[in-house]
Amino acid sequence: MTDACIRAVVESIHSSPTQAALGLLMSVPGASNTVLEAVVPYSRMSMIQLLAKIPAKYCSQQTADEMALLAYNRALKLSSPGSPVLGVGFTGSLATTRPKQGDHRFHLSTRTSDRHWASTVTLSKGLRSRDQEERVSSYFLLKVCDMYMYIIF
């Protein structure tokens, strides 16, 4: 995905009436029109406080689903009544400085008033750097959000 393509996708999302809680969208002007809030629970304690419990697994589809539902409910509270909102949950276990025992993967979940969508992507271990794995997961997240702008109406 080229930078111009990424920008076009983000601008497309910003130009829609749907509001989402995704930090990635803040890189293009117009974020204040669509991003209500972005919460990135990076540490275990942050995740525990967000979910109000200790998750069975921090990096799992279930955790991403719970995060999406929380984001959706929070977006409802922050938006104007009747506004369409999108909650997104994302967890990942990507390349790091130490060897990982499990797969490099990420889990994405989205929630609207009438739809729930979930996906798990497993990356080939050792094929990409951390930066490259972050790009793959970020592009995937952007494409899913862009797709939702056209599905929920």
From TrEMBL:
One of its GO terms (cellular component) is nucleus. One of its GO terms (molecular function) is ATP hydrolysis activity. InterPro entries: CinA-like_C (IPR036653). This is Uncharacterized protein. It comes from Gossypium schwendimanii (Cotton).
